Automatic annotation (TrEMBL):
InterPro entries recorded: CheY-like_superfamily (IPR011006), HATPase_C_sf (IPR036890), HATPase_dom (IPR003594), His_kinase_dom (IPR005467), HisK_dim/P_dom (IPR003661), HisK_dim/P_sf (IPR036097), Sig_transdc_His_kin-like_C (IPR004358), Sig_transdc_resp-reg_receiver (IPR001789)
Lineage: Bacteria, Pseudomonadati, Pseudomonadota, Alphaproteobacteria, Caulobacterales
Residues annotated as domain Response regulatory: 719-835
Compartments in which it is found: Membrane
Source taxon at top rank: Bacteria
Signal peptide start-end: 1-21
Full protein name: histidine kinase
Residues recorded as bearing 4-aspartylphosphate in the entry: D768
Pfam families xref list: HATPase_c (PF02518), HisKA (PF00512), Response_reg (PF00072)
Classification via CDD domains: HATPase_EvgS-ArcB-TorS-like, HisKA, REC_hyHK_CKI1_RcsC-like
Xref: Gene3D superfamilies: 1.10.287.130, 3.40.50.2300, Histidine kinase-like ATPase, C-terminal domain
Limits of the Histidine kinase domain: 471-692
Catalytic activity entry: ATP + protein L-histidine = ADP + protein N-phospho-L-histidine
Coarse class of the protein's main subcellular location: membrane
Length: 850
C-alpha cells in the first residue's frame, strides 16, 4: 500500500497539471517562485491596524445584493482566518445591524456562518454540528452554500476525511469558476484551503500547486494580513518538505511583516512557526527562545494553537533537562478540556521519557515508552488503515482532476494543429477577400449615404410631427378654453334645471374632446420616447380608493354597482407615479363602466412584500359587461383599435386608452393582462414592483389642509394683469375672478403688458405665451431683467402642454404654469399659492430688515 501511495504522488506530481511538470525546478526554487507570485517582497508602507480591510468593509456595506455579500465575506474571513478577535467582533455587530435594518436574510446568515467558523477553528474544529452544516449547505441559498463549502472543506481536511474534502473541493471549484469575477476571492481561498488537505494527505507538491493558483487569482489585490498568512503557509509547507533553509527565510520574512502590521493576534502565529522550524532542526533552546514572547498567552491558553505551543515548550524544556519546567507544562496540558484540544498522547509520553532520562532514569523512560507503544499499537493500526484509505481516495480524486485538465490541454493542442492546417486555406481566402473588399467598400459607402439620407428624412419627419402636434394642441385648446371656461362660469350662476343640464352637457362634451387630445399627445410622447415616469411618495390605497369614488355617480346613473376593496394589509407609503397610476386605473374603470350595462364592476388592490424592501402591487378591475372573444382580446391593445365597428357606434371612443395604459404600465416596469369571456365579462390585471418609502412629514399635510380652508383668501381684492390676444380668453378669466372682487387690467400682447406695468402696479400677471408683436416668454424675460419686477408673480397660460414647452416657460422666469383649457379650481389654486408665497417672502424680508 505504501508503494501505491508513493506511485500516486509521483503520477500527480509529474502529470500535465503537476507542480514539477510546469518547470521541473528544484523545490527551493519553486518555493521562491511562489513567493514572487504572491508579491511578498513588494510590500511597502503596510497599512496599520488593518486599514485596508476596514476600508474594504466600509465600501462593501455601501453596496447591495451580491456585491455587499461577497465584500463582507472577504472582511469577516480575513479576520476569522487569522483569529483576530476584536475587529472580527466589531464587524459582526455592525453587519448584523445592517442586515436587520435592510431585512437582508443572506447577510444575516453569513454572519452566523463566520461566527460559528471562528469558534470552530479556535476550539479545535468541534463547533459545527450536523444541523449547522445542513442549514448552511442546503437551506441558505447558493451564495451561502459556496461560502459554507469552503469551511466544510477545511473541516473535512482537519478531521482526516481527505477523500470527501477533495471531492467537495472539485465540485465547488467548478461552481465558483462559473460565477466569474465576483467569486474570485472565494475561489482563491478554496484553492488555499484545499492545499492544506493535500499537504496532510502527503501531496506536498500538489499543495504548492494550489497555493500558486490562489496567488494567481487574487494575491496581487489581497489584504495585507492575508499576504502575511500566505507567507506563513509557504514557510510551514517548506518545513514539512524538509526545506528548512527556505522555511527559515520565509519565517524571517513573516516575522518582519508581522511586526510591521502590529497586530498582537498575529504574533501567536509567528512564534508558533518559529518554534516549529526550530523543533525540526532539533534545537530545543531555540524553541524556548521563539516561544518566550508568548509566555503570557501560554499561562492560560484559550486557543488550540496556544495548546500546541505549550506542547512545543514542554518537549523543548524536557530535552534541555529542565525537568520542573517541563513537568509544569505537562500537567497543564493534561488539564486542557477536550472541547479546546484533544490530548496528544505521543507527545506526553515523549516528554515523560525525556524527564525520566534527565533525572537519570533511562530504563524507566524506556519502559514507559514501550508500554505506551504496546497499548497504542492496535489503535494506531486501525487509524493507519483508515488514513491510508483516505489518503488513497484523496489522491485519486486529485489525480482525476489532473486527468481532466490533461484532456483539456490535449484538446487545445489538437485544435491548434487544425488551425495551423486551416491557415493555408485562410491565406487563399484572404486574397479573394482583399479583391472583393474594394467593391464592398464602394457598395457600403453608397449604402451609408442612402441610410444617412433616410435617417435625416426620418428625423425631419419626426420634427415636423412634433411641431404639428404642438401647433394642433395650441389651436385646439384655444377654442376649448373659451368654450369650457364660459361653461364653468355659467354653471356657477343661477340656472334652471334644464339650463344646468345643458351646461353640464357642454362641459362633458368638452372634457371628452380634451381627453382625446391628451391621449393623442401621450401616445406621441410615448412613441418618441419622451414620456418619463416620475415616482413620488404616496399612498396607493388612498389614490385608488379616491379615483374609484369619483366614478360612483357614473355607476349609480347606469345602475351598476362599483366597489373597491383592499386584499390583505395596507403597504404604507410607496414610491410610484401617482399621475400615471391614476391615468391607467381611470382608463380601466371608465372602460369597465362603459361596457357594463348591468351587474357590477369590482376594483381590488393587493400588495405583497418582495426582497430588497420592495412591494409587488396587483390592481384588478373585473366587470360583468359584454366581454370579448379571443380574436378581440388579441388585438385589444393596438392603437386606434376597438372590438368592431359596432363598438364605436354603440359606446364611442378612439381605441387609444388601453394602448396608452399598456405602454404606461410597461414604462413603470409592470405588466397588464386581460381575461375575458364573451357575454360574461372581463378582468384586467396590472402588476408591478415598486419601492417602499418613508412616510411624508405630517406638517406638510396640515399646511395643505389649512390652505384649503382659507378659500383662496389671498385672491381677495387683488389687481391682476391679464395678457392674452383672444378677447374670449380674457372674458373667461374675468368671469372666474368676479367673486373675489379683483381689479383686472387687460393687455393684448407682451409689449402692451410692459407698457401697462410702467403705468400702474399689479399684484400678479397671467401671461399668455403665444401672442403677436411680443410673445409672453420675451415679455417675462424683460420683466425679470428689471429689478422692480423680480418678485412679481407671473403665471404662464398656454395651450402648449408638452414637457419641453412647460420647462421653457419656467426657464424664462414664470413662477408657475396653467394649461389651457383652464380649469377654474386649478387656476385659483395656483394664483392663491403664488400670492401667498409672495406675502410670506415679503414678511420674512421685513423681519430681517428689523
Amino acid at each position: 500500500m505504501r508503494r501505491l501511495l508513493i506511485l500516486l504522488v509521483l503520477v500527480v506530481s509529474l502529470g500535465p497539471g503537476g507542480a514539477w511538470a510546469k518547470d521541473a525546478a528544484p523545490l527551493a526554487q519553486r518555493l521562491e517562485q511562489l513567493s514572487q507570485e504572491i508579491g511578498a517582497h513588494e510590500l511597502r508602507n503596510p497599512p496599520r491596524d488593518n486599514e485596508d480591510v476596514e476600508r474594504a468593509g466600509r465600501r462593501a456595506l455601501r453596496e447591495t445584493g451580491q456585491a455587499r455579500l461577497y465584500g463582507v465575506w472577504r472582511v469577516l474571513y480575513a479576520y476569522k482566518s487569522n483569529q483576530i478577535q476584536a475587529p472580527f467582533d466589531t464587524w459582526v455587530a455592525q453587519t448584523r445591524e445592517v442586515a436587520r435594518r435592510d431585512k437582508d436574510a443572506s447577510l444575516q446568515t453569513l454572519v452566523d456562518l463566520e461566527t460559528l467558523a471562528f469558534r470552530h477553528e479556535r476550539g479545535g474544529f468541534q463547533a459545527f454540528q450536523d444541523a449547522d452544516w445542513d442549514r448552511f449547505l442546503n437551506r441558505s441559498g447558493p451564495d451561502i452554500r459556496l461560502m459554507a463549502g469552503v469551511e466544510r472543506v477545511r473541516h473535512l481536511g482537519q478531521v482526516g476525511r481527505w477523500a470527501q474534502a477533495a471531492r467537495l473541493a472539485a465540485e465547488l471549484t467548478v461552481e465558483l469558476e462559473r460565477r466569474g469575477r465576483i467569486a474570485q476571492p472565494l475561489l482563491a481561498e478554496l484553492h488555499q484551503v484545499h492545499s492544506y488537505t493535500l499537504a496532510d494527505a502527503g501531496d506536498k507538491e500538489g499543495a504548492l500547486d494550489h497555493m500558486a493558483q490562489a496567488a494567481a487569482l487574487d494575491e496581487r489585490d489581497a489584504f495585507y494580513v492575508r499576504k502575511i498568512e500566505r507567507i506563513y503557509d509557504i514557510a510551514f509547507t517548506a518545513a514539512d518538505l524538509g526545506e528548512l533553509d527556505a522555511a527559515e527565510r520565509f519565517a524571517a520574512l513573516h516575522h518582519k511583516l508581522t511586526l510591521a502590521d502590529g497586530d498582537a493576534d498575529l504574533v501567536t502565529w509567528d512564534r508558533f512557526l518559529c518554534a516549529r522550524i526550530a523543533g525540526l532542526r532539533d534545537a530545543p533552546a531555540r524553541v524556548i527562545q521563539c516561544l518566550a514572547p508568548a509566555a503570557g498567552l501560554l499561562a492560560k491558553p484559550d486557543r488550540r494553537l496556544q495548546v500546541r505551543m505549550l506542547g512545543q515548550r514542554a518537549l523543548a524544556a524536557a530535552q534541555l533537562g529542565q525537568a520542573e519546567a517541563a513537568r509544569r507544562d505537562l500537567e497543564q496540558l493534561k488539564t486542557i478540556p477536550e472541547s479546546l484540544a484533544s490530548r496528544d498522547q505521543p507527545l506526553e509520553a515523549l516528554v515523560e521519557a525525556y524527564i525520566d532520562q534527565g533525572r537519570g532514569r533511562s530504563a524507566e523512560a524506556f519502559r514507559k515508552l514501550d508500554a505506551w507503544r504496546k497499548a497504542d499499537s492496535l489503535a494506531a493500526r486501525k487509524v493507519h488503515a483508515r488514513s491510508v484509505a483516505e489518503m488513497s481516495a484523496a489522491l485519486e480524486s486529485e489525480l482525476r482532476a489532473k486527468r481532466d485538465e490533461s484532456r483539456r490541454l490535449a484538446e487545445e493542442v489538437r485544435l491548434s494543429r487544425s488551425l495551423a492546417r486551416a491557415s493555408v486555406v485562410i491565406a487563399l481566402l484572404l486574397g479573394v477577400l482583399v479583391a472583393g473588399a474594394a467593391a464592398w467598400a464602394v457598395h457600403q459607402r453608397r449604402a451609408s449615404g442612402r441610410l444617412k439620407g433616410a435617417q435625416q428624412r426620418a428625423e425631419a419627419a419626426s420634427t415636423a410631427k412634433s411641431a404639428f402636434l404642438a401647433v394642433m394642441s395650441h389651436e385646439l385648446r384655444t377654442p376649448l378654453n373659451g368654450m369650457l371656461g364660459l361653461a364653468q362660469a355659467l354653471r356657477s350662476g343661477d340656472l334652471t334645471p334644464d339650463q344646468r343640464d345643458q351646461v353640464d352637457l357642454i362641459l362633458d362634451s368638452g372634457d371628452t374632446l380634451l381627453v382625446l387630445l391628451n391621449d393623442i399627445l401621450d401616445l406621441s410622447k410615448i412613441e418618441a420616447g419622451k414620456l418619463e415616469i416620475a415616482p413620488t411618495v404616496g399612498d396607493i390605497v388612498q389614490t385608488s380608493a379616491r379615483l374609484v369614488g369619483g366614478y360612483q355617480p357614473t355607476a349609480r346613473e347606469k345602475g351598476v354597482t362599483l366597489t373597491f376593496r383592499l386584499e390583505g394589509e395596507a403597504p404604507g407609503p410607496l414610491m410610484f407615479d401617482g399621475v400615471r397610476m391614476r391615468q391607467c386605473l381611470s382608463n380601466l374603470v371608465s372602460n369597465a363602466l362603459k361596457f357594463t350595462t348591468q351587474g357590477k364592476v369590482e376594483v381590488a388592490l393587493a400588495c405583497y412584500p418582495e426582497p430588497d424592501d420592495r412591494v409587488r402591487v396587483r390592481l384588478r378591475v373585473a366587470d360583468t359587461g359584454i366581454g370579448m372573444n379571443p380574436a378581440t382580446v388579441a388585438k385589444l391593445f393596438r392603437p386606434f383599435t376597438q372590438a368592431d365597428a359596432s363598438t364605436t357606434r354603440n359606446f364611442g371612443g378612439t381605441g387609444l386608452g388601453l394602448n396608452i395604459t399598456r405602454r404606461l404600465v410597461e414604462l413603470m416596469r409592470g405588466d397588464i393582462k386581460v381575461e375575458s369571456d364573451e357575454g360574461v365579462g372581463s378582468v384586467f390585471t396590472i402588476e408591478m414592483v415598486v419601492d417602499r418609502a418613508e412616510a411624508p412629514a405630517p406638517q406638510a399635510r396640515e399646511e395643505h389642509g389649512a390652505q384649503e380652508q382659507v378659500g383662496f383668501a389671498a385672491l381677495q381684492g387683488r389687481r391682476i394683469l391679464v395678457v392674452d390676444d383672444h378677447p374670449v380668453n380674457r372674458r373667461v378669466i374675468r368671469l372666474f375672478l368676479e367673486p373675489f372682487e379683483c381689479d383686472l387690467v387687460e393687455a393684448e400682447d407682451g409689449q402692451q403688458a410692459l407698457d401697462a406695468l410702467e403705468r400702474e402696479a399689479v399684484d400678479i400677471v397671467l401671461m399668455d405665451v403665444n401672442m403677436p408683436v411680443m410673445d409672453g416668454l420675451e415679455a417675462t424675460r424683460r420683466l425679470r431683467l428689471d429689478t422692480r419686477f423680480h418678485r412679481l408673480p407671473i403665471i404662464a397660460l398656454t395651450a402648449d402642454v408638452m414637457s419641453a414647452q412647460i420647462k421653457t416657460c419656467l426657464d424664462a422666469g414664470c413662477d408657475a404654469h396653467v394649461a389651457k383649457p383652464i380649469d377654474l379650481r386649478n387656476l385659483l389654486s395656483v394664483m392663491d399659492r403664488c400670492l401667498a408665497r409672495g406675502v410670506a417672502r415679503d414678511a420674512a424680508a421685513g423681519l430681517s430688515a428689523l
